[in-house]
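[worker-b] picked up task from shared queue
[worker-b] task type: protein-ligand structure
[worker-b] ligand name resolved to flavin-adenine dinucleotide; SMILES cross-checked against name lookup, match
[worker-b] sequence length check passed
[worker-b] input payload:
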Amino acid sequence: MVSENIFKEQKEIIILGAGIAGLVAGYELKKKGYTVKIYEASDRIGGRVFTKYFNPDLYGELGAMRIPDDHELVLHYIKELGLCNKLRRFKTVFNEDNCYADLNNKIYRIDKVIKELSLCYLNRFDQNLKSETARKYITGLKILIEAISPVEIRELFTRDLYNGLAQEIDTLFCNNEIKYDEEEVTFRNILKHADKFLDKVNPSLQLFLRDIILETKKELYRLEGGMSIFPEALAQFLKEEIHLNKPVSGISVLGDEVHIEFNDGDTIISSETICTIPYSVLKNLKLSGFSDSKLRAINDLKYADASKVLFLCKERFWENEKHKIKSGASITDNKLRQVYYPDNESKTKEGVLLGSYAIGGDSKEIASMRKQDRLNEVKELIGRFHPEIKENNMVLKTESISWEDHKWTLGGCSVMWNGENDQELGDPIDQLYEDIIKPEGNLFFAGEHCSEKQAWIEGAIRSSLEQIEAITKKDLAKVAV
Ligand SMILES: Cc1cc2nc3c(=O)[nH]c(=O)nc-3n(C[C@H](O)[C@H](O)[C@H](O)COP(=O)(O)OP(=O)(O)OC[C@H]3O[C@@H](n4cnc5c(N)ncnc54)[C@H](O)[C@@H]3O)c2cc1C
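[worker-b] inference finished, payload out:
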């Protein structure tokens, strides 16, 4: 039996990036007795967990905003860091009936939209459906996918519907293989039977469905005080180990050594190193000593864009008698895509509206606009169902981000779906995935992109814990020899 402490005291582990993956790696390694140093390019920790504070009570999320109840690792650390008392229910899209759906140039309330739209969709993709419930079901499914998916996936799904999927679903209803009472066709129930026809939809949507299920589930949490309190609590434990404003410019793997160059000209030579830099950024750095397969994976991994626009409003007008909206999200088929209402307790009459949350090609559209044009257009579009936002001085301050333009991320999140190039997709655990996660000598890789739960904090944490396990195993093996 070898004691883990034999080597830890003097052993230094370098971590690149102070997002959740880097911070969890630092936190765990320090707890185990290792010396750690974390180098972060920007002037703040947290990466894609990024709360914009207009003041301590008025804030909005520019990055991650919800935690599914089955993301055990996130909840584990929240508990360990004493943040359980900050957990609050996150009311998500389709969970608040009074929210709006701005679709086909018409405004509906969410609880009415399936019924009303099933009449319009009648002529659009199928006139020969036999089951009325199937028609309603397909309408609901289409709205759900419209609301959450990026344009790349929406287009493929519409194509699927025209190419026989609508008929397939109709047949499943006629044969009683899918059974619903008509009033049961609600957004809450729609995905219950999706497994019956999943193999008939395009592979991109099959992969994205996991996110749709997570994003619409009832059991989601947020952190009162802003999601950034989570990385801040991890960083409390790591203070002097974190070096901000230290962008890495190059990494060389030379035998057991990892040589790291920084933008400011500094260089360090380390042994075990955990790199959590997103591959969208890493692929532009000077890399040497990497295997061809690793370089290919770094270059080939796709990122989906993501944009958010926040408005600090003088009044929480969405809560007034006319709208009666307390939380949840409105959906649109225009540039806004999703509008989230804050569900933090209103201590003030002001409120922060997430005026637009768009991903993939939809985000590209928002990102390509000049900042002022973007804000004006988002305001104009919200005004279609909340005219109050256009009143003089209603918007006190704004903030927006397009993660694809953010220098240290260059993309929203890594994705395995590919839109049009579906035929290139394989199982997520295919060769590309193996190459994404594999270490190069003593250089280990972590971050959401190195996990099967890509695009979630849970994935970022899991990937770090897996790399820590690999490092400790390696160290124990060396000591045992
Ligand atoms: C808009 C949006 C909404 C999201 N919503 C959710 C959600 O609701 N729930 C959820 O669980 N997840 C959500 N996610 C995903 C979640 O935010 C990420 O999966 C997670 O935060 C990624 O953590 P990470 O440590 O892997 O990467 P990052 O947070 O990106 O951390 C990487 C760090 O590396 C640094 N870095 C980059 N380049 C260099 C360099 N050259 N040198 C040194 N450092 C460098 C970066 O500055 C950054 O701090 C969302 C993401 C986005 C963009």
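[worker-b] attaching auto-annotations
[worker-b] The first strand starts at residue 12 and ends at 16.
[worker-b] releasing lock
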